[in-house]
Amino acid sequence: MATFLYKLGRLAFRRRHFVALIWVALLTLAGVGAASAPPAGNTSFSIPGTEAQKAFDLLEQRFPGASADGATARVVFKAPGNGKMTDAGNKATVEKTVKELSDGSEVVSAADPYTGNAVSKDGTVAYTSVKYKVSGMELEDSSRTALKDAAQHARDAGLTVEIGGDALSAAPETGATEVIGIAIAAVVLVITFGSLLAAGLPLLTAIIGVGIGVSTVTALASALDLGSTTSILASMIGLAVGIDYALFIVSRYRTELAEGHSREEAAGRATGTAGSAVVFAGLTVVIALVGLSVVNIPMLTKMGIAAAGTVVVAVLIALTMIPALLGYAGRRIKPTGEKSRLLGGGRAAKKAQAAQKAQQPARDNMGTRWARFVVRRPVAVLLLGVVGLGVAAVPATSLELGLPDDGSQPVSTTQRRAYDLLSEGFGPGFNGPLMVVVDAKKSGDAKAAFTEVTDSIKGLKDVVTVTPAQPNKAGDTATITVVPNSKPSSSTTEDLVHAIRDAGSGIKATTDAEVLVTGSTAMNIDVSQKLNDALFPYLALVVGLAFLLLIVVFRSVLVPLKAALGFLLSVMAALGAVVAVFQWGWLSGLMGVEETGPVMSMMPIFMVGVVFGLAMDYEVFLVTRMREAYVHGEQPRQAVVTGFRHGARVVTAAAVIMIAVFSGFIGSSESMIKMIGFGLAVAVFFDAFVVRMAIVPAVLALLGRRAWWLPKWLDRALPNVDVEGEGLRAHDARRDPDTDREPALA
Hints:
The chain is built from 23 helices and eleven strands. Helix content is 62%, strand content 7%. Strand 8 and strand 9 (477-484) form a beta hairpin. Strands 6, 7, 8, 9 and 10 form a five-stranded antiparallel beta sheet that branches. A four-stranded antiparallel beta sheet has the order 2-3-1-4, sandwiched between helices. A two-stranded parallel sheet has the order 5-11. Helix 1 (2-14) crosses helix 2 (16-36) and helix 13 (378-393) packs antiparallel against helix 21 (671-703). By secondary structure, it is an alpha+beta fold.
């Protein structure tokens, strides 16, 4: 592979006009497609194989036109001062608002609070439920505007009015912190390279790659039912890996220049060596993201595939556009150790530096000094790293999973204020009613079955209200609304859902009527359970495939095993940090978390996928340099030091950049994006600086030559991908060395 990528890098360097034209054309094509595509909102949420989804599908069949999955809005009214909602003036305002809400073209119904028992016992709070024909994703902006206008008219009349439900769901915003994250990345690149131009190349190529990936996602959003969060996550991951992959190749290019190679040759060698690591690092990320499809949750599958596509684009750009841009930059990209004139370089600086080198021996860099410290005290470093991550992982033992509802929104939003008003007037369980669907088509007496189900539910704990059964026209199916006594995200409500389902099993045995529980609360519970059940199979699949890939890369059994175990440590520590902030409330004010609660159900499985891919990035980039030194004749411990001398500075810069990019998404208005941004940033910190920079060299120092052991039969069976660039040495032997040198004027 190294030889092929070497040739590709040289070709891109020579044919840079053609390569640049192709990528600009792709960016333009994707941009035009995104601009002309219809907009997409939040993706439709279906969970195949769950009872809640089965009930939704049954409602679509038995209650045609009822729009079971249509958007809903709860407009909540509160009387001013000591007034009551039953006062004549307040009642007239509410009735006028209900009539105004009913006039929308997409509205199915708007219930009258005074005829629908929707006024609180103390008379201070009332609400109307507005049902729409289409889902929140498909709702027209005019319908949302009409909803807000009707609420404002009631406010102008003196009432407190807030709106809950999914009808007001909007595309998440990331805020200014994303820009700050990119700015930090730019500063780190300038410090790393000592050159504005060299620092700008990774940023430019990453932005182009993300532009192509996100524009493609946007263009296909409507056709493939991709939600707004899909493009945000694709940009988050694509930007981080795009900068890192380009950073590694540019850094290796400058190293090759420092060794005296011509610029074209240096571009080829950088692409052949660092580019090989980029390919395999990208493959691990793609495997982890595409593997999310095994969970069988369409939304998660689409998010993973879209992000994986952006990673593929980032890899291709790093292998082709970076060498092309290096060709354009020419001598303005300096060898390692030299700075540009703008940052203090130039001829005078070079002469002073040369004189200083002549007077005193070269000083070891920080990576070299750290590696030597670790290989001298591997046991102490290993124990300290493992214990530290173990302590950070302790909060993960109290992990509670759930999906966000209006109660987790910031208190500044109307959805959260509506949630609080309904809890105040009707009890906390009113915000998460359960819908029980009774399928009595096979029952001999449907009415008796409906009555038995209603009576059975009334006898359960934590039940406040059970509405009479509402049968369909055929009389073979009915819906029953159950209001719990506890809030939707509580474990008590989850126990009630299981209790209703258990009671339904007994009812089916006696009446042949099937009892199904659905609604947003039940759907959240089913999603959490499905994600929990899929976590270990997914982990086994992703880690197993990546383990096999890393055996091919490193020609070792113990190094990939150590990489996988180190990943488990970092992801558990990161989950512990997420629990501490988002569930326990530590530093929640600093992170902009206004409401603590359960961690999102998809967070563990998403972190496992993404963090594993990113963790393997650093493993591949750092350990391949160690492997390269080892196969070229160095002793195992010296190979560790050599790997750090060449790779520690760049890996550190890459980690800081990735942390900055992910941290930029903590400012998102979407709680899911905020939590993922924080979790990934913390996970990269733990994995890069504790696992890869401390635990990995300590383990390799303790293992010695055994770290690179591979059974002979397996060595013969595995393909030789030549990540270390051994093929380039054979290639060098057939070349004229004088043609590979930079002219003296360089």
